[in-house]
Amino acid sequence: MPLSNEDNLRLNVLLRQNLYALRIDESKMHVEALTEKGEAQVSLNPNCRDEKYIPMVKEMISTYVLGSPIGYPVYIHRWTRMGQSRKHESLQNLLKLGESEAVVAVAHTEGLPVELAQHAWWALPTEENARTLLRHQSVIENELGKELAMFLMEFLPFESDAMRIVETVSLLLQPGILADEDRQSLWKKASHKSAYYPGFLITAADNLPCQVDEHENFTNLSHRLGDTIAQGNKVAKYYLWLHSDRGRAFLHTIKLSLKRPAQQDVVVALFNAIGHYFSDLGLSRRYRTIEELQAINENICDGKCGPEYSQLATEINQLTNLSAGSDKRIQAMLGLAQLSETLLDPLFGGTDCLGSVMRKRIKPVSEPLLEMVRQLEDK
Fold first, then answer.
1. 250, 355, 327, 234: which is closest to 283 by C-alpha?
2. pTM
3. I want to staple 243 with a disulfide (CB 3.0 to 4.6 A). Which of 124, 190, 218, 325 is the partner?
């Protein structure tokens, strides 16, 4: 059955304009277009049931845009999100199909130009698309980035999925997106929803919006370790940083994160974020127990390690010679550097516990983690 004569005519006229993007409102039976002259709309007049008519409309649009009625393979979700490299013309055509999955494919394209990002946002103004577009540097550097950030800021209080909260906060905290007052607003909200904290540690670990004084030994340490750090000693660099106001804010945020985590995904994101920050140390993050992790650290600090950690052991030895009595602190720092979700696998495997039950279950790792933080905060 063909489209109604009126729709066939009006859609053909619409498609022959200089189009940037199309979207189909199936609830109102409208086809909306973004053109070089602005927005346009065609109200559909179906001659059969709506659910049968809409696919016919999409086939007609696809035939005109792509030369085939098949349209975009909406069922290939994984392929859509792999971030393929496509030509500008091909991307623009995908935005003209009226298929949300085709818009998602455009949004995931590597090196997406900001002009196409603007069209993709018009075509699919959802929180998922906003997060995807905020991964592009071209968007961050454009006013579109601020528009998407404000959209996500408004939506964030209503988000219930823990990992989406973590991801959203981490994207919002990218440099150049939020004003200082908005960053402070996010930080205040974190006190009521602990899922915000890992997002801060993922993106803004070195620039957290909380005031914590530097360690009383920081100035003395900076004088003693300056030359060693300048020579490339990474252990000394991280060790000094943990005594700075920024490093102590990092430690303070870890404690805040562990006060009342409610979901497993939040704890997983927290452990991954902590360990990732120290990734330059080159330590393995595949340990499944705290005891195994601590035993490895003791061996490294004692110089009883294999060739893969010989350079690390040398740097630790240089640090201990310049900072007497720092052994426990150094081991605590190495412990932070080895955190990952692998440490949580034996505790979370086969259970979906939440809240207080989950907090009790993670004590074998959360309590040693807090002890590491205490070691590093001690005067």
1. 234
2. 0.88
3. 218
Q: Do 239 and 321 touch, CB atoms closer than 8 A?
A: no
In degrees and rounded to multiples of 5, residue 120 shows phi and psi of: -65, -35
Phi, psi of 33 (to 5 degrees): -130, 145
C-alpha–C-alpha distance, residues 238 and 219, integer Å: 15
State how far the alpha carbon of 196 is from the alpha carbons of 225, 258, 353, in Å.
34, 12, 20
Q: Which amino acid is at 379?
A: K
* Strand 19-25 to 30-35 pairing: antiparallel
Per cent of the chain over pLDDT 90 is: 79
If you write DSSP's letter for every residue of 117-170 in order, what string do you get?
A: HHHHHHH---HHHHHHHTT-HHHHTSHHHHHHHHHHHHHGGG---HHHHHHHHH
- Kindly state the tokens that stand for 92: 């623009």
CA distance 246 to 253: 11
The DSSP output letter for 281 is: G
Question: Residue 99, CB half-sphere, CA atoms under 13 Å: how many?
Answer: 27
Say how far apart CA 127 and CA 31 lie, in whole Å.
22
For 4-25, what is the mean pLDDT?
Answer: 94
Q: What is the mean pLDDT of residues 329-336?
A: 96
